[in-house]
Amino acid sequence: MLHWTLYVTLSAVLLAATPATTSEPSRLKLDTIKAGFLFNFAQYARWPDRPASDGRLHICIETDTLDMAVFSGWDGRVVHDKLIRVSAVDLSGDPERLSACHIIFAGPSVDQNTLRSLAVLARRFGILLISDAENFAINGGHIELFLKNQQLRFRINANELAHSGLSLSSKVLTLAEIVGGPAKGS
């Protein structure tokens, strides 16, 4: 919980430090904060049993959505006894090639057809779907990141999370806006 609290506090400080001349935080600052949220979600998520893999926790970032430089210090980081591997991926085409991902981050322009395909994939393979697309959680994604009063917040679709065999710590759930029914926490 200390990491989560520290990160939420850090995100608020970073966003508050954005110059008053801009209405939005800089992209790099915001991408750094989003990356921190992804790390914390990975720490507090529980996945269903998956077939043997390469022993890594795969975080797949849709190409051209987050600045991949914000992940440069992640080599060697461990979550749930697995080394983290961050990769840029193209969400178009056959979604089956994304089945090794534990987390998929989709950008703000993810379309409904892609989201439906990702939701099916998430249910089959227990993949956590996260995006900063408007209405992502309401439309079938798991976690939607959004700005409110210059702070990065998140909402969770509890039903879709459960349908994918995933759960999040109750500590995370208390910080979220919940949509789609009661949340399953560990």
Q: What's the β-strand tally?
A: 10
CATH class: Alpha Beta
Largest sheet: 8 strands, mixed
Quick check: average pLDDT? 86
Amino-to-carboxy terminus distance? 13 Å
Q: What radius of gyration results from the CA coordinates?
A: 15 Å
CATH architecture: 3-Layer(aba) Sandwich
Query: What name does the CATH topology carry?
Result: Rossmann fold
Range of strand content: 15-25%
What is the share of helical residues? 25-40%
What is the string of SSEs from the N terminus onward? HHEEEEEHEEEHEHE
Number of contiguous helices: 5
Overall domain count: 1
Structural class: alpha/beta
Uncertain runs are 1-10, 12-23
The outline comes out as globular
User: Taking strands numbered 1, 2, ... along the chain, how are they ordered across the largest sheet?
Assistant: 3-4-2-5-6-7-8-10
